[in-house]
Design goal:
Blueprint: H1 10-16, E1 28-31, H2 56-65, E2 70-75, H3 86-100, E3 105-109, H4 125-134, E4 141-145, H5 148-157, E5 160-163, H6 171-180, E6 182-183, H7 187-196
Parallel strand pairs: 1-2, 1-4, 2-3, 4-5, 5-6
Length: 200
């Protein structure tokens, strides 16, 4: 599958990116779950409703083939609100892996907005935990998500953030990301940008 308007496959991009210099290629790619790798369903409790976003299956397959660790970093406050049970959350996440393949780490915050935890994005806790679980330097991680909280969590942790705006992304979040991070049109473009690296 080619990235729109380029004629270049994701696999070709992943193969070519490490040859570009001078850049610092990522040690791991971290993804928000809802509206980043699967279509957002508010407080998703039914595994049957899990649907990958366009390009997610091939993109993740290409990253794994290239030996790039991948992880999920996700806020799931529905558990704290009593809208999702832990068992339902586990079942949904298992279905995500059935459709998209295995992730090397899952870091999920089940706390609410007022719980004062250190893991709920935009706090950096989940990003730090993901890097530690993968045994990589957090400064060489890239976090891809659809909200300003994803980008802020990455930035505060010392990682790179890439925003993929959706219908729920606020204009101010896009504006801030254009100044302080990277904005991509879709998941494939975001991964291409991540694998192109940054100046070392």
């Amino acid at each position: 599958m080619s990235a729109p308007g380029t004629g270049t496959s994701v696999r070709d991009t992943l193969a070519d990116a490490p040859l570009r210099a001078p850049v610092q290629t990522p040690a791991a790619l971290l993804f928000d779950r809802d509206d980043t790798v699967i279509v957002d369903v508010p407080y998703l409790a039914d595994p049957a409703l899990v649907r990958p976003v366009p390009g997610a299956v091939e993109t993740l397959r290409s990253l794994r083939a290239a030996g790039v660790p991948v992880g999920i970093v996700s806020n799931q406050s529905g558990v704290a609100r009593g809208l999702i049970t832990p068992a339902q959350l586990d079942a949904v996440n298992a279905r995500v892996e059935e459709l998209l393949g295995p992730f090397d780490t899952w870091q999920v915050c089940v706390h609410g907005d007022d719980d004062g935890c250190e893991c709920r994005k935009p706090a950096p806790g989940l990003v730090h935990r993901a890097a530690a679980a993968l045994g990589v330097d957090v400064r060489r991680c890239v976090m891809i998500g659809d909200t300003g909280a994803d980008v802020a969590a990455a930035s505060t942790a010392g990682a790179r953030g890439i925003l993929v705006p959706t219908r729920r992304t606020l204009p101010v979040e896009i504006h801030d990301a254009r100044r302080n991070a990277t904005v991509a049109g879709d998941l494939i473009e975001a991964v291409r940008a991540a694998m192109a690296g940054e100046p070392g």
